[in-house]
């Protein structure tokens, strides 16, 4: 029987109409419909005490981002986890736009994997969005017993109602044990997603594109290496990744491994374009500071090429004579027009127009920290041998600490939020001031027409002034979903 489907606008959110009846699950019917969604008023931020010597558990902060609110740019609620030593890191949802066609699904639970302890928390954001509450804890012993997996990182919701998480190793930190964990809709451990014998070399992030029956995952490194801090010798010894893994979706068969070579060391965040018909995506390679574009070939194999290259900077008074930008996060606007990336060490955020997918054009750049900002000991060298430092403005009287790490874009593409903690051990190594003074969160105004970035002077969340002492701020999520959580099918 034929089914008539159209998309109608119902206020701010697009609604799928099937045979004349509204059929709406969580999220939006399309990426472009999401751009017309409501303006964000709250944002959830994972905050970390692990590794800081505070003797406190990590927590989820609710930040008011409504400029008309009296509590704008302030933490209005804190949900502490019941255990210490977790290292909350990334986060995801139990349901997102991949479940849009299922009216029984609801975006209710924020999924918080703990990178170090292995616990996975499900947080209820529906009862009171401003004050989320803990719903369930998936204990690491249960995960290890049933799957052998540990060090959970990225969480994505699936159209089936299941939740899938990348896990970076076994309980001893060996990369050989990494793979993908499946939880059911009530967060019970189901098992591994990938077929036996099809585990990746290393784990980190992943993104799926169902219309092309493909999932692609990236490769940070072995937990036994990165949890101790960054050591360049570990790269030479093969403890860090340089590959992308191409899987059948949803079959879980590893069908191709892309070796990115020396131009693609430490590939971290991976994103397809949001248009589900597109067979193109990008991955940020941290150590070599390249954005690599991957694409589907006519024979259904996948290829790759460097699309953006951030040149290293010659420096003085640092651990190496040259400093990479260290691209630690990037995202793509919902209309697939702009790509934003964060150079954690150099200290700048960049905006590129990617309408020409193979030849991105730099359209905006702003410095919000970095190792060679004015006032630090490290000096950058120009081509003529002269030295310089970057002038980074204060925000509300605060000197900006660390460098830009996680970023999150508003649905309409006009506001970019940024935090500055990468991973507590690496924060201590590269930005020790953050361990003492904590992290912060900024908001960048975006010109989404012609391009351009500027710091919003009205917005500054100082996680150095928290009631239990300075904390580190990492991943950010809107209650209604965003361009790094939602996947369309």
UniProtKB/TrEMBL annotation:
Transmembrane residue ranges: none
Superkingdom of this protein's organism: Eukaryota
InterPro entries: Se-bd
GO MF annotation: an example: selenium binding
SUPFAM superfamilies for the chain: 3-carboxy-cis,cis-mucoante lactonizing enzyme
Alphabetized UniProt keyword annotations: Selenium
The family this protein is said to belong to: Belongs to the selenium-binding protein family.
Classification via PANTHER family: METHANETHIOL OXIDASE
Name listed for the protein in its UniProt record: Methanethiol oxidase
Originating species: Solanum chilense (Tomato)
């Amino acid at each position: 029987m034929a089914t008539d489907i159209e998309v109608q606008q119902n206020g701010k959110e697009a609604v799928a109409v099937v045979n004349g009846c509204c059929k709406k699950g969580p999220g939006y019917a399309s990426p472009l419909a999401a751009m017309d969604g409501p303006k964000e008023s709250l944002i959830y931020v994972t905050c970390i005490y692990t590794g800081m010597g505070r003797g406190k558990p990590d927590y989820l902060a609710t930040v008011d981002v409504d400029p008309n609110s009296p509590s704008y740019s302030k933490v209005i609620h804190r949900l502490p986890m019941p255990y210490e030593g977790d290292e909350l890191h990334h986060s995801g949802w139990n349901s997102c736009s991949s479940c849009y066609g299922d009216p029984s699904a609801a975006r209710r639970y924020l999924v918080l994997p703990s990178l170090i302890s292995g616990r996975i928390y499900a947080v209820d954001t529906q009862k009171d969005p401003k004050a989320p509450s803990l719903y369930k804890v998936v204990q690491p012993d249960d995960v290890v017993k049933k799957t052998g997996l540990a060090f959970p990182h990225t969480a994505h919701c699936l159209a089936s109602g299941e939740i899938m998480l990348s896990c970076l190793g076994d309980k001893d930190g060996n990369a050989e044990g990494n793979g993908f964990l499946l939880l059911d809709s009530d967060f019970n451990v189901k098992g591994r997603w990938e077929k036996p014998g099809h585990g990746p070399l290393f784990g980190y992030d992943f993104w799926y594109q169902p219309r092309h029956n493909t999932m692609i995952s990236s490769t940070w490194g072995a937990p036994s290496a990165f949890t101790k801090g960054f050591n360049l010798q570990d790269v030479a010894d093969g403890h860090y990744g340089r590959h992308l893994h191409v899987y059948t979706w949803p079959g879980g068969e590893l069908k191709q491994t892309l070796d990115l070579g020396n131009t693609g060391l430490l590939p971290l965040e991976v994103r397809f374009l949001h248009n589900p018909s597109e067979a193109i995506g990008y991955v940020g390679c941290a150590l070599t500071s390249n954005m690599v574009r991957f694409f589907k070939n006519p024979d259904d194999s996948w290829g790759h090429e460097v699309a953006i290259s951030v040149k290293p900077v010659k420096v003085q008074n640092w651990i190496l004579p040259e400093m990479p930008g260290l691209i630690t996060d990037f995202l793509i606007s919902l209309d697939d027009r702009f790509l934003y990336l964060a150079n954690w060490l150099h200290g700048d955020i960049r905006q590129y127009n990617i309408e020409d997918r193979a030849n991105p054009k730099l359209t905006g750049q702003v410095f919000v920290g970095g190792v060679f900002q004015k006032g630090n000991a490290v000096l950058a060298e120009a081509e003529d041998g002269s030295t310089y430092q970057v002038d980074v403005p204060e925000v509300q009287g605060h000197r900006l600490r660390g460098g830009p790490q996680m970023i999150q874009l508003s649905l309409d593409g006009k506001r970019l939020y940024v935090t500055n903690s990468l991973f507590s051990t690496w924060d201590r190594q590269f930005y020790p001031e953050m361990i003492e003074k904590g992290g912060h969160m900024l908001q960048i105004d975006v010109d989404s027409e012609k391009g351009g970035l500027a710091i919003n002077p009205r917005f500054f969340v100082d996680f150095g002034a928290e009631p239990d002492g300075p904390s580190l701020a990492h991943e950010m999520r809107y209650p209604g979903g965003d361009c790094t959580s939602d996947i369309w099918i």
